[in-house]
Amino acid sequence: MNIAAELLALSVKKQIMLTCAESCTGGMVAAALTDLPGSSAMFDRGFVTYTNQAKMDLLGVPEQALIDFGAVSEPVAAAMAEGALNGSEAALAVSITGIAGPGGSEHKPEGRVCFGVASRRRTATQTIEFGPQGRDAVRRAARDHALALLLEELQKLPD
């Protein structure tokens, strides 16, 4: 069973809806979740917020967080996940913001992706350095990691 199928089965069992907020993956998490028959039982909606303005408008990411930390940062990933949760009927959200490449800088290299996971109880963040493996590979790796984070957090939530 693939991870999206595991998410579907466990979400349905626990009656928990999911949502996502994506930047560098451009909807790949939402696509993976909705590829499955019956996904409407666990997936509420997805937000693709590629620009800073979209992050502010759709998710309520504070402009000051974008100024202080930049779009690719854990504070912004946290705000994105919380914004997706608040803007949906879901009980669990994941967010992704990163530099898929090409490009990046010394301080924010290609392949750096920040993730947020939010439930009604808590928000957690992490940064993964996937490295300069190319845009497609970074995006796929980020999608897969986000799905794994959702599953991990879903397993912690009570039935």
From TrEMBL:
Residues 3-153 form the CinA C-terminal domain. It comes from the Bacteria. It holds the Pfam family CinA. This is Damage-inducible protein CinA. The lineage of its organism: Bacteria, Pseudomonadati, Pseudomonadota, Alphaproteobacteria, Rhodobacterales.
